[in-house]
Amino acid sequence: MKKHTWIVFLVIAALLVPLGAIQAQDDEVVTITWWSTERGRDTAATRDLHFQLARAFEEANPNIRVAISLFPSRAFNTRVATAIAGNEGPDVWTTYYAADVAQQGFLEDLTPYMEASGVNPAESWFPIGQLRTVYDGRYYGVPREASAGFIAYNKDIFDAAGVPYPEAGWTVAEYRAIANQLTDRENDQYGVGAIAGGEGCMLWSPFSFNLGADVISPDGRDVAGYLDTPEAAEAFRFCLELVTEDQVAAPAELQDQYGELVFLSGKVAMQSISNWELPALNEQAEFEWGVVAPPRYDENSEGIAWTDAYAHYMWTGSRHKEAAWAFLDWLAGPEAQRMAAEAGIWPPNGPGVWQELGWDQDPILGVAYAELVKETRVANYLRSQYFWDCVYPAFDNVRVRWIQNGERDLESMLAEETANAQFCLDDSYDF
Amino acid sequence: MTITRHLPRFGLRGLQRFNNVSGYTVLMVLSALFMIPLYWMFSTALKSPQQTFAIPPEWVPAPAQWDNFAKVFDEVPFGRFYLNTFFLVFANIAGHLVSVTLVAYGFARLRFPGRNVLFLVMLSTLMIPYQVTLVPRFIMFSKLGMINSYWPLILPAFTGSPFLIFLVRQYMMSIPFDLDEAAYIDGASRFAVFWRIILPLARPALMLVVVFTFIDVWNDFLQPLIYLNDPDMFTVSLGLSFFQGARETNWNLLMAGSVLAMIPPLILFFFAQKQLIGGISVEGLKG
């Protein structure tokens, strides 16, 4: 071989080697980690769904592998926080609350990724999906699913009393009147579910919103000006009087036996529930039941929906952000949403898949759908990581003082409890 | 006076029998009371969700849902979790037996400058809550590339446990030094004294180490949660938690799983109780 032939050969080789390296880099398979929790029931089905989702994504994206870790929900946040502290956080994780994590800088701002991918939350997601993933005007997550709160009613109890079933558009006054009508304490029958603990009155009840009470600021840092307003007092009074004046609430002992879903006892005419309780009702209720939208304040007001959504997040320390975003985008998209819905694990996060599956026309799910498209707010207890330590005791204390101690100066009680709760929040938020 | 007046009618043996019968009756009633939660767990493990919440409560579930136990294995890979936990238990027992006995022997039998100070320093680590060292330990194992492996759950056992070292050291101190001296006179090395004299005599204390380590590792929830990512490596306590969701709890399967999880510690206690109680009483007398 002549000298110049060698030179040409070497030049070509020198050009090909980097090209090959670039090609190899393009073909390189990256592995992202996805941490999530299981939900206590249908554990195997939930776990299988996670793996089905990951495998379906991998099939569509051969260069990305997804390593799944499913943890018990009991200590999931501890697991994530420890891993992040050790710089070993997951690329993607799924949880119900992360607003303060965003404030601490551990969540990747997904807004630029969404803009680049043409994701339009207003079109694709229900309102709650948008609210739950936004912090300070930026998107930090994508909604995993969407669920709504509504009122379950026992048709057998209504039929026996000759009371017509409630219909959408009813008011809180009608709700109270029906509860009184259907209460028969001598025969161990109650108009509404037990009102015990802080949850009983206000935490995740759509009543608080519809009675005009918003007990904590949207950023979760203030209760002063929220928990001590006349509207909050009216909402509290409505709730507490169901126990003391009307005596239509199921006793706490019944809730001790049945847990939160005391409606399953068959002795409660109406209870505020959500999509999460539907599987248990479908499997265990030994009576005829139906669901209806929560009552609005009065005939002149629009109802405000109680809705919620878990979300998928990306860690700021992720080493494979593009791959993690591709996965998040896919998880929030129609294919993954349809898979989850068909498996019966999570209701889809946007109206498209609900309509495609005909769920919006379903007698039960249709009620949830109607709530999901309504005006809504982030649930009180999801606005601050310190809610349970600082604000929850206020609910419980007011309830105890009203019911057990017989105190009736609600405004003073709320003022005192607000001051304590605000002090605790101010003390806790040092970032 | 009353007793002496009754003596002719019952006699001393009769009185003793009466005391025994009344004593046993009280003990049986108390035992039955203490057994109620256990019975409730077993009974709930055999119920359907409807039976669980039935009013009045069903003490004897009819029909009994024996397939709840099979469902536990369908819902989570419980068999795998069992094997994983056994592996960790045996590795930790091995680690503790090696490290704890050696360190305790040093503190109990060897004289060296600063021994008591070192012992106090070691004991003082008992006062540090685990949560304080959680993140630093995680970072350390992370830097060593050991996250998602069993090493963080095993290696610490080979560095001793202050509580167990304290227990074994106290026991070893109660063994007469004459035995060591006799062995030294016969030409035994320090290790030979440790291996041939002290260890066999410290068997009750070592049994305590085995039982405490077994129960500790078997029930440990936080450490496997923190260090393991791969669900195939999870342990029984993590597996049980899968039946407790944020909003829903599958009580029947949780109780069925708890019954299954309880069996190994129960068997261990059954076989080891004689030595265990002996060990505890000796600790109490001589410690």
Topology:
The complex is a heterodimer of chains A (431) and B (287).
Chain A lengths: L2 H25 L2 E8 L5 H18 L3 E8 L4 H10 L6 E4 L3 H5 L7 H7 L3 H4 L2 H7 E2 L2 E2 L1 E3 L3 E8 H7 L10 H11 L7 E3 L4 H5 L4 H5 L19 H15 L7 H7 L9 E7 L3 H7 L4 E4 L12 E4 L2 E4 L6 H11 L2 H9 L8 H6 L8 H8 L3 E2 L9 H17 L6 H19 L3
Parallel strand pairs in A: 1-2, 1-3, 8-9, 11-13
Antiparallel strand pairs in A: 3-12, 4-5, 6-12, 7-9, 7-10, 7-11
Helix pairs in contact in A: 19-20
Chain B lengths: L1 H44 L3 H4 L14 H9 L2 H32 L5 H10 L5 H14 L7 H4 L7 H12 L3 H9 L4 H12 L1 H17 L2 H6 L8 H6 L9 H36 L1
Helix pairs in contact in B: 1-14, 3-14, 4-8, 4-11, 8-11, 9-10, 11-14
Key features?
heterodimer, A: 431 residues, alpha/beta, D-Maltodextrin-Binding Protein, domain 2, 2 domains, 6-stranded mixed beta sheet, B: 287 residues, mainly alpha, MetI-like fold, 14 helices, flat
Q: What is the name of the CATH architecture of the largest domain in chain A?
A: 3-Layer(aba) Sandwich
The structural class of chain B is mainly alpha
The total count of helices of chain B amounts to 14
In DSSP terms (H or I, runs of 4 or more residues), the helix count of chain A works out at: 20
Strand content of chain A: 5-15%
Helix content of chain B: over 70%
- Compressed to H and E, one letter per element, the order of chain B equals HHHHHHHHHHHHHH
The count of DSSP E runs of length 2 or more, i.e. the number of strands of chain B, is: 0
Biggest interface and residues each? A-B, 38 and 31 residues
The biggest beta sheet of chain A reads: 6 strands, mixed
Q: Characterize the biggest β-sheet of chain B.
A: none
Q: Strand pairing plus helix content of chain A: what structural class?
A: alpha/beta
